[in-house]
Amino acid sequence: MPDGFEEAFSSGSAVALGYFDGVHLGHRKLFSLLRGLAEETGVVAVAHTFSNTPKSKIFATGGDGLITTLAERCALIHKAGVENVAVFPFTDSLAAMKAGDFLEEYVSRILNAKVVLAGEDYHFGANREGDSEFLTRWAEGKGIRPVLVPPELFNDRVISSSWIRERILSGDMITAHELLGRPVSYEGEVMRGRGLGGTLGFPTANIGIPSGKVIPDFGVYTSFLRFEDNYYPAVSNIGLRPTVSDNEVYPLLETTALGVKLELYGKRITVYPIGQLRKEKRFESIEELRIQVMKDVDEARAYHGSHPDYSNIFKDVL
Fold it and tell me: Rounded to whole angstroms, how far apart are CA atoms 46 and 86?
């Protein structure tokens, strides 16, 4: 641990336990309770997470399949009103640590917990041996107040990071947005491409999918592009561009802002895919692709024209 880390919690803390990928509506409910209990108890509020991906969070599709990078996750936790985030490296030794040892070392000794919060389905320790009942018994034996938080529901189903991830993988950004309480987002530096978008009549700002983030179903999406705190209606393509390249390995996110020309090379932008218009496909010729791109742009413009008041959807984004 860094020097001074334990001293930061010398007066005690209220600790939220979890990985908190996505910082979705269920997580934010837990953080709201955390803030109130910390204030009531007179201790600092802290959310616990890991700097790298636990094995239980690694998925076969979409790389690590995370909704948020570590930096995004921490920033969203701060935005939810929790000032302190305890980030621990997920090492092999930690992965093999017994549930009780984890609580003693990290929650009790390092974080000096006086209150501990977790979701009712929380599991931890080697082979996920620890659960909410284990946590409650341990906390009560240490004089720590345990608080188990019921799940947040959407259409009578528990909101979970795995559900959100599955929706993103299938291209259902609308449901993912509803479960997160904000649009799905991808941030990156605009790179120079082949200039194909310009030859088709619609120049694109191209970014890579950040390493470790879940990759949406390949296709064309209505979207918004954020640059310097301004939001622009847009249309985006996510995929490997099979019509123009046979050897693409890493997906590219190509975005065209509608109705405005922006000089974005080398600039950082954020793209919010809102809804999928169609899946990616290989066209027989560049001309056939150009005709389809024109249709995609027209459809995206029609969508944005029928949804002119979009300001509220960005109130909880970073």
Answer: 7
Rounded distance, CA 114 to CA 144, Å?
Answer: 5
Give burial (CB, 10 Å; 0-12/13-18/19+) of 220: buried
- Closest alpha carbon to 112 in 196, 230, 6: 6
Give the integer Cα–Cα distance in Å for 293 and 210. 25
pTM flag (> 0.70)? yes
Handedness of CA 287, 279, 179, 52 (dihedral sign): negative
H or E segment at 166?
helix 161-169
Question: Could you tell me whether strands 13-16 and 44-50 are parallel, antiparallel, or unpaired per DSSP bridges?
Answer: parallel
**pLDDT tens by residue, 219-267:** 999 999 999 989 999 999 999 876 666 666 688 999 999 999 999 999 9
DSSP for residue 312? G
Domains of the chain by start residue, with CATH: 11-156 (3.40.50.620), 182-314 (2.40.30.30)
pLDDT tens, position by position, 146-188: 999 999 999 999 999 999 999 999 999 999 999 999 999 999 9
